[in-house]
Amino acid sequence: MTTHSSKGTHATRHSSPSEKQLIDDILLLYQLKPSEQAYAHYAPSAVFHDPVSIAQGLDSIKSQFNGMPKLFASSITEKCDILSDESQDRKLALNLTQRYIFKSIIPGKSEGMEKTVNSKVTLWMNMDGLIEKHDEEWDHEGNKSGDDGFMGKMMQARKKVDAKLVEKTVSSDSNKI
User: Fold this and answer.
1) Helix, strand or coil for residue 10?
2) Worst-scoring range by mean pLDDT, 18-22, 87-91, 116-120, 158-162?
3) Pairing mode of beta strands 111-125, 91-103
4) How far is it, in rounded angstroms, from Cα 159 to Cα 155?
5) What is the CA radius of gyration of the chain?
6) Which ranges constitute the DSSP H helices of 31-144?
7) What phi and psi values does residue 22 have, to the nearest 5 degrees?
8) Closest Cα partner for 137 from 6, 1, 27, 26?
9) Backbone angles phi and psi of 102, in degrees to 5
């Protein structure tokens, strides 16, 4: 079995029952349906890193995903496959294609522009099976970090500030969104 991404063709495999539950719950976060069941898969010290932010700690991660319904009218998972060549013990790599429909800024119109994003989502689990690190790489391009020189350090600092701003303005309680 194979899947296609912006980086080419990748080998895939079927999920185990426990992986299926984990993937289904994480996809609910991307589909604007945050829940405590989905967040129960994360360790308290987990880190979420994407091109926009670096959220450190479960409450910050919750704020990131709980904030998505404020921006998007809907979010549809078009494809999600396990990348077999990159998944291993305590690491699960996914090829995710998600279609985001923004809320409209025009009064009386509920939906605005659409954007489809193909990402490589990698989940690293700790010894207890909880997610310690959740990376989302748009177009399967690695996220810039402090290891990428001066500009990487600048981007890393901005992403941490972005996550803190969201954390301060969006509740981590999924019942309050």
Assistant:
1) strand
2) 158-162
3) antiparallel
4) 6
5) 16
6) 36-39, 58-71
7) -60, -50
8) 6
9) -70, 155
DSSP per-residue letters across 115-176: EEEEEEEEEEE-TTS-EEEEEEEETTPPPP-GGGHHHHHHHHHHHHHHHHHHHHHS-S-GGG
Amino acid sitting at position 44: P
Q: Please count the CA atoms within 13 angstroms of the CA of 23 that sit on its side-chain side.
A: 21
Phi, psi of 23 (to 5 degrees): -60, -45
Sorted by sequence, the CB contacts under 8 Å of residue 165 that are 6+ apart come out as: none
The pair of three-digit structure tokens given for residue 63, joined into one six-digit string: 């704020």
CA-CA distance, 93 to 9, in Å (whole number)? 14
Q: pLDDT for 131-144, tens place per residue? A: 999 999 999 988 77
Q: What is the DSSP letter of 27?
A: H
Q: Which of 55, 75, 74, 76 is nearest to 170 (CA)?
A: 55
- C-alpha span between 19 and 5 (Å, rounded): 21
Nearest alpha-carbon partner for 98 in 112, 114, 69, 78: 78
As a dihedral over the C-alpha atoms of residue 144, residue 48, residue 29, residue 115, rounded to 10 degrees, the angle is -10
Give the pLDDT band (50/70/90) at residue 55.
very high
Q: Please, are residues 103 and 111 in contact by the beta-carbon 8 Å criterion?
A: yes
